[in-house]
Amino acid sequence: MNLLAFDTSTDTLSIAVARGAARWQYSGPGGAQASSSLLPTIGQLLAEANLALGNLDAIAFGRGPGSFTGLRTACAVTQGLAFGAGGGRSVPVLPIDTLAAVAEAARQQYGCTNVIAVLDARMNEVYWARYQWQGGIWLGCGSGEEGGKEGGESSNGDFGLCAPEALVVPPGWSVVGNAQAAYGARLAPDAAHLHALPDASALLRLAPALLAAGGAVPAAQALPRYIRNKVAKTTQERADERAACA
After folding, report:
1. What is residue 88's three-state secondary structure?
2. What's the whole-model pTM score?
């Protein structure tokens, strides 16, 4: 299977190309730099793999949650590449949840099978979801009221959004992701923490099962998954926080 995968949802840009069992990978600075380096690096990896866009079976991308700018970049680039495939053939696209990719990255690195995937959502909040590895696939265990303390929490389908202090971790589960670096002991201080990011290699490993399950969509449906609509705090909210800490 020939696949292109990339993730721009965090401060790390991750890109990978699969041609059968062979892999070509790149990891570098994300954030504001992702928009300028993403396309040239994709072109370089495809050239190294001797693949044209029209040879791809699908383009997989991390659809969120994550950085608003990063998600919009990923969706725009995915749509452009898919529509621009040689001969006018639109390559199918495969949106993959970034928290599922975090879980898969942790499984590959540490052997985790019961995890709460957590990404820093900024503004003193984290995105989170529960996953269990069963029968060779990740099963989402849901989120929402059963996963966090009362107050300061909202959910969107399988994902939750809460303050770091509100995250509840069942005994024996690991917290995996990038949020501990930002929040330290505020985030599940009694749980086991492991660093993991939604890298493109994880997307490649998740892609075959998702494709088999019918997860591919037309290029026009390469859309982000937002958990909240707010990008930043208002000037008044920041002033109120400073006053509260004074």
Report:
1. helix
2. 0.88
